[in-house]
Design goal:
- The chain is mostly helical.
- It has two domains: 34 residues, no CATH class; 42 residues, no CATH class.
- It is 65% helix and 0% strand.
- 0% of the residues are buried.
- The mean pLDDT is 92.
Length: 77
């Protein structure tokens, strides 16, 4: 396929709004979505998540049962 045919194909893809066609092209070319929710989080949220992961890695966590016991003692449930 020559370069002009490729340009025409790209132009046709850009101009179409037919989701079925776009999905088929994506499947044929084995293109996977690269959406990552992480990129939409605020820096503050990313830091908080990373801190939580670090604390888990360091063994600084409580099991669900431990938290329930703490809450019962603290709030007399």
């Amino acid at each position: 396929m020559d370069i002009q045919s490729k340009k025409n194909l790209i132009s046709a893809i850009l101009q179409t709004s037919d989701e079925a066609i776009l999905t088929e092209i994506k499947n044929l070319l084995k293109i996977e979505d690269t959406y990552d929710f992480w990129d939409e989080l605020t820096e503050e949220d990313q830091l908080a998540i990373n801190l939580g992961i670090k604390q888990l890695d360091e063994g600084k966590s409580f099991s669900h049962d431990e938290v329930k016991k703490l809450m019962r003692r603290k709030f007399n449930f």
